[in-house]
Amino acid sequence: MTAIGAMTLTLPEDPLHRHAGTVGRPKTAGPAGLPDGALVTYKVIDPLTGEDVPPGAEGEVSRGPTHMRGFWKKPEETAKALRDGWVHSGDLGRVRDDGYLEVTGRTKELYKSGGELVMPKEIEDLLTGHPAISQVYLVGVPDERWGDAGCACVVRAPGTDLTAAEVIALCKERLARFKVPKHVLILDAAELPTTPTGKVQKFRLAQYAQKRIEDGGA
Fold first, then answer.
1. 11 burial level (CB within 10 Å; 0-12, 13-18, 19+)
2. Mean pLDDT of the chain
3. Does some domain include residue 86?
4. Which residues of 171-185 are buried (b: 16+ CB within 10 A; e: fewer)?
5. Which of 45, 73, 99, 167 is the most exposed place for a label (fewest CB within 10 A)?
6. Considering the domain boundaries, does residue 48 fall inside one?
7. Would residue 3 count as lying in a domain?
8. Are 191 and 158 in contact (CB under 8 A)?
């Protein structure tokens, strides 16, 4: 790749919540674009069925018709990503009523518990609102009964003594049964595996959580 064009934009007059909470709206292209003048359009689909989800609902973000021709010398990956004229990005997100696109996660972070698909961000958003929680990350770990089970990795706010039982109780009050984490790990921030830029690596966190659970730590 030597060059790439922008597909979304935010405007100088947009309010802060659009700049901070979205990646923008589809960029216009004039006569080179779609009939409505857009360069690209997005749709959000159910990761399991491939069906379009209602406006504002979360799902996998797909893009067309302006997109790559494929991955260099990787026909299998190309066939997986390019289907029916759409690029299946692997990103989770939603298109808001105002047309702005929010990216909320990655499809590879999803897991199935008892045959039901769980989106970790929903549980993370719930728990992040608790005043005793500084950081929280939900990962799926192998489980003999459920296939995968949720594990909430929680960093407590300074000076608080939140317990794993309290985390579970909060989830039971607000979530469907299959979404309630089966395990809770109370961690120090230093235990979170991160990239050099400080982003938490969930695949490594899932491995760490699995080992802690196997060792009886959750």
1. exposed
2. 89
3. yes
4. beeebeeebbbbbbb
5. 73
6. yes
7. no
8. no
Give the residue with greater pLDDT, 95 vs 27. 95
What pTM does this model have?
Answer: 0.72
Backbone φ and ψ of 193, nearest 5°: -75, 125
Distance of CA 130 to the CA centre of its chain: 20
Q: How far apart are CA 212 and CA 144, in angstroms?
A: 16
Same domain, 97 and 184: no
- On the CB side of 136, CA atoms within 13 Å amount to 28
Q: Mean pLDDT, to the nearest integer, of 125-151?
A: 96
pLDDT at 38: 58
CB 165 within 8 A of CB 150: no
Using the 8-state DSSP alphabet, how is residue 106 labeled?
E
Number of domains in the chain: 2
Residue range 79-110, pLDDT digits in tens? 999 988 888 999 999 988 888 999 888 898 99
Kindly state the tokens that stand for 99: 């047309």
Helices (H), the chain: 16-21, 75-81, 120-128, 164-174, 202-214
- Is pLDDT above 90 for 184? yes
